[in-house]
Amino acid sequence: xxxxxxxxxxxxxxxxxxxxxxxxxxxxxxxxxxxxxxxxxxxxxxxxxxxxxxxxxxxxxxxxxxxxxxxxxxxxxxxxxxxxxxxxxxxxxxxxxxxxxxxxxxxxxxxxxxxxxxxxxxxxxxxxxxxxxxxxxxxxxxxxxxxxxxxxxxxxxxxxxxxxxxxxxxxxxxxxxxxxxxxxxxxxxxxxxxxxxxxxxxxxxxxxxxxxxxxxxxxxxxxxxxxxxxxxxxxxxxxxxxxxxxxxxxxxxxxxxxxxxxxxxxxxxxxxxxxxxxxxxxxxxxxxxxxxxxxxxxxxxxxxxxxxxxxxxxxxxxxxxx
Length: 322
What we know:
Layout: H1 9-34, H2 42-45, H3 54-67, H4 70-75, H5 79-86, H6 90-100, E1 108-113, E2 119-124, E3 129-134, E4 138-140, E5 143-150, E6 155-163, E7 166-172, E8 175-176, H7 179-216, H8 244-248, E9 250-251, E10 254-262, E11 268-277, E12 286-291, E13 296-300, H9 316-321
Helix pairs in contact: 3-6
């Protein structure tokens, strides 16, 4: 072979190194793309919400709900529902996902198939596990219906609609999903539940004041005296009758007020309690008033403090017991 045709060793080595570097870069790219999916099945990584089948889309919806991943869950909601969902508080976002996967805490989704070849999703949370079995899907043009059975629970049918190249959550059972309407309903339920806890806290405080009086022969001067001091026994300054939040005067997003009134001798002889929402409308709507008579009063005071001149409040527990 002539010298003019002899290969240049340095050039050949450079080509080899360049080729190996290209292969290494491709391998690293594939590895980086796969890292988020390690330990999960394909449906768990399909986050573009463009699954070709309704069952695959529903599996991805359930996996997102299991993880309590609101961002991915929102991708599987159609149009206005997706917009409304993204505007919800974190608590209400989780509430909707709990309707799909009824567990108290977030879990890890594990995908498998039934003997019939239909998807099965198991959601493992720290405290409990649930299994969701999907049945044979029925597709009618742009609509699809997928039966779903919950282990140790009931069964329902999930409706999906084709939108933007993928399947979106349309209905649960016979109820069309309307996130805006649900958010109003849930907000009202949360306010009602919070107000019930506030009423219970007022009665707990009233009972604690009475207990304090019997134990120490006088009324406490401030709510803080009903609380506790670390590593010390009960005393007039720390009676250990209520938790520290309540003793500090703020709990359940309500502000608690305590007042004492002098008797004929000039010493404190009477008391009253009031609870007012910290942020009217969000924390709660009603203000409450309770004194030694045990009669609860209050109403929607637009954030103002309730008084003994307000109407009597009928408590649900008391009505149900009659």
